[in-house]
Write a structure and sequence with these properties.
The structure is a homodimer. Chain A is an alpha+beta fold. Chain A has ten helices and twelve strands. In chain A, helix 3 runs antiparallel to helix 4, helix 4 packs antiparallel against helix 5 and helix 9 crosses helix 10.
Amino acid sequence: MRHTLLFTILFASFVPQMPATAADQKANVTRKWAIVLHGGAGAPPANATPQQLQARRDGLAAALTAGRTVLAAGGSSLDAVEATIRVLEDDPLFNAGHGAVFNSEGEHELDASIMDGSTLDGGGVAGVRTVKNPITLARRVMTETGHVLLAGPGAEAFATQQNVDRVPNASFSTELRRAEWEKVRAQEAAENALRQQPAKPWQIGTVGCVALDKAGNIAAGTSTGGRTNKKFGRVGDSPIISAGTYADNATCGISASGIGEQFIRHAAAAQISLLMQHREWSLQQAADYVLKQRLRPGDGGIIGLDRSGMIVWVFTTPGMYRAAADSSGRFDIRIGSE
Amino acid sequence: MRHTLLFTILFASFVPQMPATAADQKANVTRKWAIVLHGGAGAPPANATPQQLQARRDGLAAALTAGRTVLAAGGSSLDAVEATIRVLEDDPLFNAGHGAVFNSEGEHELDASIMDGSTLDGGGVAGVRTVKNPITLARRVMTETGHVLLAGPGAEAFATQQNVDRVPNASFSTELRRAEWEKVRAQEAAENALRQQPAKPWQIGTVGCVALDKAGNIAAGTSTGGRTNKKFGRVGDSPIISAGTYADNATCGISASGIGEQFIRHAAAAQISLLMQHREWSLQQAADYVLKQRLRPGDGGIIGLDRSGMIVWVFTTPGMYRAAADSSGRFDIRIGSE
C-alpha cells in the first residue's frame, strides 16, 4: 500500500484554505480572490466590424464586473459564478440563455451545470426550454434535490416547483442565431447525413466562469444552448459535472467550451483536477496535457484557476472569448487569439 | 517537461494489444478472452427464499453464457457486452428493461451507455420510455450519431428512426417493483421531503458488463431503471460515459452500480482508468482507492477487467450480484457477499 500512503501524504498538502482568521481580519489582511470567465472557444468571424467586436468586449466586461463585485465584497465563489453567468445568459451575443442557438426544430434547449469545490456537490440541467437563467436552476438542483443532473420535462417541472424566472422559448431567439441555423440546416440537408457533421467553430459556443473567494473556496459553472441544429435531445458536456465543469478546493476549478462529446469521453474537466492531485502537475501543465495530448486539435478550450488564484486558459481553437480579474487589480478582456 | 516525458515513456508501455498474428493462428494459439457482469450492488433481502436466490443465479448464468458464447467464438467485446446486457434487461429480476423500478409517476424511464475501448467512442441514452433494450439504442448513439448522450423525447425519436424494438412502457412493470414503489412512495410522502432521502440498498440496482475479446479490445456497458420513485427526470451515472461506464484498451473497462450522484461527482469509472495510466496502479489498486478512499462506504460497487484479462470487483455495499468467465474455463456466479 505504498502508493496509498504516498497519496495520503500528497493529499495532506492539498487541504483547502481555511477562512480568514480573526488575526487576519484584525491586521486588515485582504485574502486573495480571483475570477475567470469565457464566452466560448472560437474566434470572431473575419468580417466582424469594430462595433461588433467592441460589443463582445463590453459583454465580457459586464459579466466580469458582476462576478468581481461579489468577490471583492467578500461574497462566495458560488454567488460570483452564478452572477457572472446570469449576465452572459442574458446577453444576446453569447450562446446561452437569450442568444442561444436553434435546435433542429427551430427552438432552444438549454444546458447548464455548477459545482462547489468545497463539498464536491454539483448540479446540472439538460434540455430546459423556458428557464430564463439555467445556471440558477442548476444551482437549485445542487442544493435542493440531492441529485446531480435533471433532464428535459422533469427539469421544467422542478423549475416550476422552485419558482425560478420563466420565459417563452421564443424569447431566447435572436436574428443572428436564426440566420446561422438556416445556413447549417441547408448544409446538413444537402449532405443528407444522419451523422451530424463535425461542428464548425461558429456552431459551438458556451459561457462559463470559475471563481476563488476570500475564504479559499473554488466554484465553477457552465451554460450553453448547445450546437446549432442539434437533434434528438443531444446532451453535450456543459450540464455534466466532470466533463464540462469541475471544482475541487484541493486542486482547481474548470469550465470548458468546445466539442462536448470529446470533453465527455475524456472526463476532461475532472481529468485536469486528477492530474494535479496525482501527478503534482500545475494547473497549466495538466490543462496543456488534456487539451493538447488527449483531445484533438480544434476540440475547444478551458478556463481555470487553482487554489492560489493562478488563472489559466488553454484553447486549441483559433481563439476564445475570455476575461479575468483578481484581487491584485487585474482586469483583463480578451477575444480571438489575443 | 520532465513529467510529460516520463508520461510518454509510461504510456508507450500501455499500447493496446494487437490482433493475433498469422504466426499465432498457425500455432493454433488461443488468445485470451474474459467477461465480467453485474446485476447491481446490494445484497438479497434477508427473507429471500432459496428459490428466489436460485432464480437470481440462473439469470446471471444465462447472461454470462450469452456473452461468453460471443467471445469464445471470436466475436467482439462490444457484441458480447450488448448480448449480455440484453439478457439482463429482459430478465424481470434485475433493475433494467423489463423489471425496471417505477419513477414517481408510476412509470419507467431507462438509462444505458456503452463504450468502445479501442476508439474511446461511447454512446448513452437517458430517460427512454418505450425502447425494449436501451443498451442497443446506446450502441446506435455511439455508432450512428457522432454524439455521446441523447435524452428524453429526442432519444425516443432517434429510436423510431433506428427501428429498434419498442414496447409499451407498462410492459417493463413487475409486481415486485410496484410493491417496492408503493412502499417508498408512502415513506417519502410521510417524510414530506423535497430532497430525496439517501437510497436504500434495495432501491438501487443496475446491470452491467465488461468484456475483453481475443483481439485485445475492451468494451463496457451499463443499463438501469434508475432509483425507485425518482423525480424530475433525474439522470444517474449509468448513461454517462466516465461516471458509470468506461473502457480504454490501454487500461481497463469498468461498469458501476450504486448511488449515481457519487459516481458522477468523482467521474468514478474514468478515474480508475486514469489512475492506472498515470500512477501505474493495478486495476485492483485503482478500484480499491476510488471505492474506498474517494467514495463513501455503501455508495456502491464496480466490476472491471484489465487488458490482460484480470477480472476485479470491488463493492462497499453488503453484496453485489456478479459473475465472471474467461478463456481458462472460469465460470463463476456470486450473489451477496460471497
